[in-house]
Specification:
The complex is a heterodimer.
Chain A lengths: L3 H21 L3 H26 L3 H30 L5 H4 L5
Helix pairs in contact in A: 1-2, 2-3
Chain B lengths: L1 H21 L3 H21 L3 H25 L16 H20 L11 H4 L3 H11 L2 H22 L5
Helix pairs in contact in B: 1-2, 2-3
Classes of the chains: A mainly alpha, B mainly alpha.
Chain lengths: 100, 168
């Protein structure tokens, strides 16, 4: 029987991996995917708490997180497509030089 | 038995999450992320919430990752695939990561406020749990639900406006 702490440690590990991807990689697509990973680790925590404390609210917040993530991905990829059209690079360091 | 499944899914999800940030080719990263999300859906089933597992599969694996793959294949990733994984100047980042991980582990494992075993699992796992979940969602959380639907609409319009070319 897996305990709550194990799920929380798994969530923390996934979160750290996501942070590592955001800080270490320079490809903007992989940065976005690492963001997904971090949001997903939060969902693991929410559902684990919901299950172990016998409370539905964790699952409901997780549903909202999933909905907002879908919005975020749609907007982020839209911005990405517009960006690539103007300035063909996937490197986050080059994208920092945006003026106007 | 359940613990074995937990270890299995957790190990695969962490391995595929590492693969997401290590893989050079963004398509490989996207596929590894898909594997990771499916494992997390399996963990949701272990936690007794098959509804969230289904949503996870539908929304993440079905919609989000397909969108990712679509955009990756639309863009030219051949140049990005040649970039080295680590590009120097990573030492401060690694220090920050180790500190963050150590802090999280100490807080999680040192805390005594988490319940050791499940206290009241029947409420969220037993018979009719999905009905109780939807009743809560559509009564107490009706307003956030409506706000989420408006946000989805805004994202839909915004994505079309952003990705549209200037010609039309």
């Amino acid at each position: 029987m897996a305990t709550l702490s194990m799920y929380l440690v798994l969530g923390a590990a996934l979160f750290i991996i996501g942070v590592a991807g955001i800080l270490l990689r320079r490809n903007v697509l992989i940065v976005l995917m690492s963001l997904e990973l971090m949001l997903n680790s939060v969902n693991v925590n929410l559902v684990a708490f919901s299950s172990f404390l016998g409370d539905f609210r964790g699952q409901i917040v997780a549903i909202f997180v999933i909905a907002i993530t879908a919005c975020e991905v749609a907007i982020a990829l839209g911005i990405l497509v517009a960006l690539i059209r103007n300035n063909a690079t996937l490197d986050v360091v080059d994208i920092t030089i945006m003026k106007g | 038995m359940e613990f074995g499944f937990f270890l299995f899914f957790a190990a695969i999800s962490i391995a595929s999450a590492l693969l997401v940030i290590i893989a050079k080719n963004p398509i490989h990263s996207a596929l590894a992320l898909m594997v990771c999300l499916v494992q997390v859906a399996a963990l949701f089933i272990l936690l007794g919430s098959p509804f969230l597992a289904a949503i996870q599969i539908f929304v993440y694996v079905g919609a989000v990752m397909v969108l990712f793959l679509f955009v990756i294949m639309m863009l030219d990733v051949r140049e990005a695939a040649r970039v080295r994984f680590l590009q120097g100047g990573t030492f401060p980042t690694l220090v920050v990561l180790v500190l963050l991980g150590a802090e999280m582990l100490i807080l999680l494992l040192g805390s005594e406020r988490f319940p050791v075993s499940a206290t009241d699992m029947e409420v969220v796992r037993g018979e009719g749990a999905l009905e109780r979940l939807s009743t809560t969602l559509f009564t107490d959380y009706l307003f956030p639900f409506e706000v989420a639907s408006v946000i989805l609409l805004v994202a839909l319009v915004g994505a079309i406006v952003l990705a549209r070319s200037k010609a039309d």
